[in-house]
Amino acid sequence: MARQIGERDDKRLHTMKDMDIIKRLLKYAIPFKKNFGVVFFFMIITVFFAILEPYIIGLSMNVIIYDFDFTVLLSYLSVLIGIILIGNVFNYIQTIMLNTIGQGVIYNIREEIFIHLEYHDIAFLNSKPTGSIVTRVTNDTNTLNEMYTSVIISVFKNVMMIVGILIAMFLINVQLTLYVLIVLPFIIIFSFLFRILSRRAYREVRSNLSKVNAFLAEHLSGMKIIQIFNKELIKFKQFDERNTKLKKSYYRQITIFGIYRPTMYLLYMVATIIVFYFGSEAVLVGTIKIGVLIAFYQYIGRFFEPIQQLAEQFNILQSAFASSERIFGILDVEPTVVDSDNAIEIKNMEGTIEFKNVWFAYIQDEWILKDVSFKVSAKESVAFVGATGAGKTTILALITRNYDIQKGQILIDGKDIKDITKDSLRKHIGQMLQDVFMFSGTIKSNIKLRNDEISDKKMIEACDYVNANYFINKLDNKYDEVVRERGNNFSS
After folding, report:
1. Could you report the per-residue pLDDT of 211-239, keeping only the tens digit for each?
2. pLDDT at position 111, please?
3. Where are the domains of the chain?
4. Which CATH superfamily is domain 353-427 in?
5. Homologous superfamily of 2-331 in CATH?
6. Per-residue pLDDT at 333 exceeds 50
7. Cα–Cα distance between 135 and 142 in angstroms, integer?
8. pLDDT category, 6, cuts 50, 70, 90?
9. pLDDT one-digit tens code per residue, 360-387
10. CA–CA distance from 55 to each of 16, 173, 192, 233, 340 (Å)?
11. Residues sharing a CB contact under 8 Å with residue 486, sequence separation 6 or more, in sequence order
12. How far apart are CA 54 and CA 355, in angstroms?
């Protein structure tokens, strides 16, 4: 059931539009808008210097070839060195600031996802494999980090560079620029196709990676059972099937990018040949100076360089979009078990519990409880006896509102539990769970659940009451003994 829900959810995510994703991602950058403003300022300066550099080189070549003047040449070279040094300094500052911003954004996204999951319904969390959710909180958010640090500003920078270079080339020589633009329609067509194909490939990669992580999370925690029943070979084949699908999806992604980049390089070479063919002819007849041809050669390289970078950034962007779809797929599912607008907090609870004609089903129309009614008075001990799946654990889950009932009422001290805030309701209810779960940390942190209001004295009294002191005091560090994952260094 969980797998089917996950697959339906992944298919639904594919309907998200690029502009919707971009708008939502940019909202996370709003707290850092001043920092982005500074980065944009540095970017404009570096783009201007980068465009100016080939022009200075062209002028220097004209001085060397036509009218040699050491003073003029020295001044050009001084300007060129200054441009390169300042540009590198601004690039360094820009890189540091972008990485700082990126980490800040990802920090906020991770926290938002974790808080959202903390308060989500148990039904929703049970419907998705743990490994799939972990992938979204870790791998998918890390993919977004690269987008914020490498793509957002760089895309603007590269677009400005392309436009700036075209303007510079038109100002230097209109005819040669028009020859260069012959290849532009092919660049647009191949880039458009690349964008569509790479998006599909990245979606497939993220989906298959999530399935592999989900499989690993489930089967590593259950490895003891796999070994007891000698199912290693079967489980290996199941893992190999998922791993093969992931490998093939990576191959498709690499193939698409591997075709696009050489295609762009081929167009670059075509543009260079065109410029040298017509440019050298113009130099021979004296229409232009050789410095113009050299400047144009430099500009063509710089014109295609941002286009190549845009291809790589599209690669990152498509990966980020695929990850964003999966992250927003978690954030867009709102909890159904929520406090009502008029919910009250209860400070004291006597403990009278009453079920009135309660109907409940985990899956629609597959009723676990049918018209159940009973009353348990305060301080009364009651035992529920029944076969597996009869609904004993479900009753406890309903009292704490881990799930909401479909029909009827559950009352505590005469109050409908839907009219009580979840926090105050659960604060007054203690459960001895049938599945023992311990968090990584210490014995003390597990008993207190990091609640500073519980004193050490009270903790020790509670352990003494349940006879846990017997084994705790035998440990080397007693209550400060380290607890490993799921308490696997202790006996159940």
Report:
1. 888 888 778 777 878 888 788 888 889 89
2. 86
3. 2-331, 353-427, 441-487
4. P-loop containing nucleotide triphosphate hydrolases (3.40.50.300)
5. ABC transporter type 1, transmembrane domain (1.20.1560.10)
6. yes
7. 10
8. very low
9. 888 887 888 888 888 888 888 888 887 7
10. 44, 12, 31, 66, 68
11. 221, 437, 438
12. 82
Report residue 1's pLDDT band, with 50, 70 and 90 as the boundaries.
very low
Question: Is pLDDT above 80 for 249?
Answer: yes
Task: Give per-residue pLDDT as tens, 91-108.
Answer: 888 888 888 888 888 888
